[in-house]
């Protein structure tokens, strides 16, 4: 729990910002600490970018205003977090995976902080812990509720048989995992069927936005491939998913064909992978892509804002695709005006995947049917 | 002894599987596998070790069949015991190398 300063209650934020700009060093540090601590400042943290240069780095970080990354190595074992290799502010390691995890979580932090005013995973300065070299032959990455975990791919197989490189190689995979943490702290979408596929889609959306943000790409310039560079040259594929054209990322004799649908008519009902959370995420992924392309420009700005605001303010654990369509439409209206081009773009994005804003896609029925079939209940918080 | 191994989930959400009959393996491989399996106390493990899904982690379903008994255990990266992880690592490597041409 962050310490709240008494001064918080009496000095309005605009005055604190003046002190932060014009006061003595000690006054500036105090003002920034107070601004960051203030819940009144939530959602307005973009202004902190302007304050960063005015106060000492130590004061900024101590107030929860900075990145706090630590990268560990599991040394090919399973113990988490493992051996500490690199802490915030320390020079680069000789281990490229360590540096990728460090830099990638840094860029992800920056997108969330600089663009959406979010201070880390919990919006309260949570440490960004990553573990690399998890197990042997571990061709995966995951978020365990406390940290990011990355395998080295299938380095245990002969070179000619390897399909995957190390998982830190892709910035969007790092953004994807970190976003699972953000979602857990916000809508906490149940990891099952449509709410689970939405959870997955949000990770792909913000993972892709992290990469586009770093590369300065517009929606039209980006290739919208998730996990580009993850496959070795043995695989016939460009990445693990395509938000632009779901179902086309790979078609390989060993891996098979990318199974993602791009439209509700191709929605896959399955009990595997928690009800196909990594398959049906193609549908909301493509809706975001369509929206971002229609709005044009930098996708993390307007389309990203609409999705971020919806994730943090409107979705809940059982939300389905229809809810996401309705709520992103509502958010676009609130941010840019009813009937605005942005709101129409959201409507069009969802329509392209077969979801009519304000309609009934029957999504909740799918979830209920699945739960009934397996005697499960979705936990709400 | 027959072993069926299924791996699902992960960031790609793909499935790989493997069917093994220890009588068809080289003697030393069969013995190693039997030893690793013994270490897990497999037949005493509960059928489901996964309490709730964790985003992107791999899930495993292992079924072992002897002449006397059939038992299945569902586990995941964060819930598998260390002995079970050793078994999963062997089976996963076999599954990944066998599906590769």
Question: Could you explain the architecture of this structure?
Answer:
The complex is a heterodimer of chains A (381) and B (101). Chain A has 13 helices and 9 strands. Helices cover 42% and strands 8% of the residues of chain A. With 381 residues, chain A is of the alpha/beta class. The radius of gyration of chain A is 21 Å and the shape is globular. Chain B is α+β, with helices and mostly antiparallel strands and 101 residues long. Chain B has one domain. Helix content of chain B is 31%, strand content 29%. In chain B, strand 1 (2-9) and strand 2 form a beta hairpin. In chain B, helix 1 runs antiparallel to helix 2. The longest helix of chain B is centred in the C-terminal third of the chain and has 17 residues, at 82-98. The model of chain B has no long low-confidence stretch (mean pLDDT 94).
List the helices and strands and how they pair.
The complex is a heterodimer of chains A (381) and B (101).
Chain A: H1 13-22, H2 25-37, H3 48-52, H4 57-62, E1 69-73, E2 83-87, H5 96-115, E3 128-132, E4 141-143, E5 148-150, H6 171-185, H7 193-215, E6 225-226, E7 241-242, E8 251-252, E9 256-257, H8 273-276, H9 282-295, H10 302-313, H11 321-336, H12 341-351, H13 363-374
Parallel strand pairs in A: 1-3, 3-5
Antiparallel strand pairs in A: 1-2, 4-5, 6-7, 8-9
Chain B: E1 2-9, E2 16-21, H1 27-40, E3 58-65, E4 70-76, H2 82-98
Antiparallel strand pairs in B: 1-2, 1-3, 3-4
Helix pairs in contact in B: 1-2
């Amino acid at each position: 729990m962050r310490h709240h300063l008494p001064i918080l209650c009496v000095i309005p934020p605009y005055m604190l910002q003046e002190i932060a700009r014009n006061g003595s060093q000690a006054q500036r540090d105090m003002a920034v600490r107070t601004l960051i601590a203030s819940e009144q400042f939530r959602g307005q943290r973009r202004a902190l970018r302007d304050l960063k240069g005015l106060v000492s780095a130590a004061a900024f970080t101590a107030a929860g205003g900075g990145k706090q990354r630590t990268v560990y190595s599991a040394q090919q074992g399973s113990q988490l977090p493992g051996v500490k290799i690199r802490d915030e502010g320390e020079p680069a390691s000789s281990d490229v995976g360590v540096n990728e995890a460090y830099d990638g979580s840094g860029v992800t932090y920056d997108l969330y902080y600089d663009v959406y005013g979010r201070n880390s995973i919990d919006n309260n300065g949570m440490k960004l812990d990553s573990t690399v070299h998890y197990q042997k032959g571990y061709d995966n990455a995951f978020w365990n509720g406390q940290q990011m975990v990355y395998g080295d791919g299938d380095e245990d197989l002969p070179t000619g048989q390897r399909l995957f490189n190390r998982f830190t190689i892709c910035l969007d995979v790092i953004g994807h995992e970190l976003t699972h943490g953000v979602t857990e702290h916000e809508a906490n979408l149940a990891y099952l069927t449509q709410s689970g596929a939405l959870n997955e889609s949000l990770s792909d959306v913000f993972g892709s936005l992290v990469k586009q943000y770093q590369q300065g790409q517009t929606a039209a310039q980006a290739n919208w491939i998730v996990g580009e560079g993850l496959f070795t040259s043995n695989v016939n594929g460009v990445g693990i998913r395509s938000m632009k054209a779901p179902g086309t990322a790979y078609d390989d004799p060993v891996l098979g064909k990318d199974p993602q649908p791009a439209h509700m008519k191709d929605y896959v009902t399955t009990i595997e992978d928690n009800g196909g959370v990594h398959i049906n995420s193609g549908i909301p992924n493509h809706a975001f892509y369509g929206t971002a392309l229609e709005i044009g420009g930098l996708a993390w700005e307007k389309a990203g804002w609409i999705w971020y605001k919806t994730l943090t303010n409107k979705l809940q654990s059982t939300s389905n695709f229809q809810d996401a369509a309705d709520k992103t439409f509502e958010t676009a209206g609130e941010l840019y005006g009813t009937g605005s081009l942005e709101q129409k773009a959201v409507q069009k994005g969802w329509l392209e995947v077969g979801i009519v804003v304000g309609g009934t896609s029957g999504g909740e029925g799918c979830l209920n049917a699945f739960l009934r079939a397996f005697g499960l209940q979705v936990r709400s918080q | 002894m027959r072993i069926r191994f299924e791996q699902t989930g992960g960031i790609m959400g793909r499935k790989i599987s493997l069917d093994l009959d220890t009588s068809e393996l080289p003697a030393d491989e069969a013995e190693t596998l039997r030893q690793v399996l013994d270490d897990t106390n497999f037949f005493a493990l509960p059928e489901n070790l996964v309490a709730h899904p964790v985003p992107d982690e791999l899930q495993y379903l292992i079924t072992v069949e002897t002449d006397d008994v059939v038992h299945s255990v569902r586990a995941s990266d964060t819930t598998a015991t260390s002995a079970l992880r050793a078994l999963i690592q062997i089976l996963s490597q076999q599954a990944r190398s066998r599906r590769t041409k």
